[in-house]
Automatic annotation (TrEMBL):
Keywords: Oxidoreductase. It comes from the Bacteria. This is Aldehyde dehydrogenase. It comes from Saccharopolyspora cebuensis. CDD domains: ALDH (cd07078).
């Protein structure tokens, strides 16, 4: 494997320039010239040429290549984590843990890819009937800034191990991290198999409009996902969309309020609330609301900027100043509409797009902090009279990514996972789960499997083969 990355980094006309500023201090890190239509088309064409040969590589050999990719990501973990830290503000240790998780995902697909399913059918005695899975062709992967390595490795790994080629566009807010990852991976891949394009919305629009793409996989905002779906409807490309979420947390009566507050804080404040499955809205039973809120406020106050003390937890900045302004607007709008501020909610002094862990209560269903994704460290709390109200209001949402229920009542647990129309329901733990799980988001949160073994099915097409002996002359 010679290792050649097809990079597209110059715009043909009216060049689109992406300024990369660090959210840590606002410093200009780099200016990226966006990929133009000719560069995007060249990357897609190169991917088509490389894919035909790659599809002929035995599945076991493709799996071995993916195992080498996992090792390469681990070898580059420090550089990837440092780049992500500088570019997105994510604390370095958390970024490095995400890189290790990304390598683990590549290992998973290295093992699963070679044994990806196929089956024989029961037909006529003298016939052979098979269902086989073939690579779809060329996959456009558009990946987010809040998990620029882990998500990319999942999508790229599943596409490559099943025999596809990929053209990868990382988010413009994590473009340096994405391009670095592409270079690390491409060093172990055939020429042209992994294309890299860089830029902002214009570059993304050029890529998804390419009529020769077979799959478009996008992880990002709902608005971008809908635009991509419209483009794919015109070209016929299959779409995999994991888009914004508005994940609910239900805190039922009988749960320890201190433990519930710890879970809520992890869900709402991890990575400064910038995780697709962050807790966005909390429904807490009135019987324990007072104790829960007091404990949650204490959890919020433990989240600090800079070097933490022994009992404190580091908080990174939000990814960009304009993103912080939008988070703060949603908080102020909630306060103006009658919500009560218990912690945070004030723009800090100094450089960087930092925002404090924020707790709101007295929230009502019509408030934007309960209706829409905030994607910041904001815990919006609504006190409810009983579990039925909590479940009813949690389920009444247009998004469908994930939800969590903390309850001692197994009947409530059973009811909740059936009633919540989301891809993932977590009972008594906000984050976690066994490896290999897969889920399909619903509604405004997208469609298609975005991870797990089932993502291999999404990256392949099923073909039925019916084979009977030939009829020869004289027979």
């Amino acid at each position: 494997m010679s290792g050649g990355l097809v990079e597209a980094t110059s715009w043909d006309e009216d060049r689109e320039v992406v300024e990369v500023r660090s959210p840590l201090d606002g410093e200009l890190i780099d200016s990226i010239v966006g990929s133009g239509r000719h560069e995007v088309a060249a990357a897609v064409a190169a991917a088509h040429r490389a894919q035909a040969e790659w599809a002929r590589v035995p599945a076991g050999d493709r799996g071995a290549v993916l195992a080498r990719l996992a090792d390469a990501v681990r070898d580059a973990a420090d550089e990837l984590a440092t780049t992500e830290h500088r570019e997105t503000g994510r604390p370095r240790e958390q970024a490095r843990a995400a890189v290790e998780a990304a390598a683990g995902t590549l290992d998973e697909y290295a093992a699963l890819g070679p044994v990806h399913r196929g089956r024989s059918l029961n037909g006529e005695h003298d016939a052979t009937d098979l269902m086989v899975h073939e690579p779809r062709g060329v996959v456009a992967a558009l990946t987010p800034w809040n998990e620029p390595v882990a998500v990319a490795c999942g999508v790229l790994g599943a596409a490559l191990v099943t025999g596809n080629a990929v053209v990868h566009k990382p988010s413009e807010r994590a473009v340096r991290t994405g391009v670095l990852l592409n270079r690390v991976l491409a060093a172990h891949l055939p020429e042209g198999l992994l294309g890299s394009v860089a830029g902002g919305p214009r570059c993304g629009a050029e890529l998804v409009a390419d009529s020769t793409l077979d799959v478009i996989a996008h992880v990002g905002s709902t608005a971008a996902g809908r635009s991509i779906a419209a483009a794919a409807a015109a070209t016929g490309a299959k779409t995999l969309l994991e888009n914004g979420g508005n994940d609910a947390l239900i805190v039922d009566a009988g749960i320890d309020p201190e433990h519930a507050a710890e879970q809520a804080a992890v869900g709402a404040f991890a990575n400064s609330g910038q995780i697709c499955t962050s807790v966005e809205r909390i429904y807490v039973h009135r019987d324990l609301a007072e104790d829960f809120l007091a404990a949650l406020v204490e959890q919020a106050r433990r989240r600090v900027f800079g070097a933490p003390a022994a009992d404190e937890i580091p908080m990174g900045p939000l990814v960009a100043e304009e993103h912080r302004a939008e988070v703060h607007r949603k908080v102020r709008d909630a306060l103006d509409a009658g919500a009560t501020l218990l912690a945070g909610g004030v723009l800090p002094d100094g450089d960087g797009s930092y925002y404090p862990a924020t707790v709101l209560t007295d929230c009502r269903p019509e408030m934007e902090v309960l209706r829409e994704e905030v994607l910041g460290p904001v815990a919006a709390v609504r006190v409810v009279d009983d579990f039925d109200q909590a479940l009813r209001e949690a389920a009444a949402d247009r998004h469908g990514l994930a939800a969590t229920v903390l309850t001692p009542d197994m009947a409530h647990a059973q009811r909740s996972w059936r009633a919540l129309r989301v891809g993932t329901v977590k009972i008594n733990e906000v984050f976690g789960g066994a490896p290999g799980g897969a889920a399909q988001p619903r509604g405004a949160s997208g469609s298609g499997f975005g991870f797990g073994p089932e993502l291999l099915d999404e990256m392949t097409a099923t073909k039925v083969v019916h084979l009977v002996p030939p009829v020869l002359p004289g027979t």
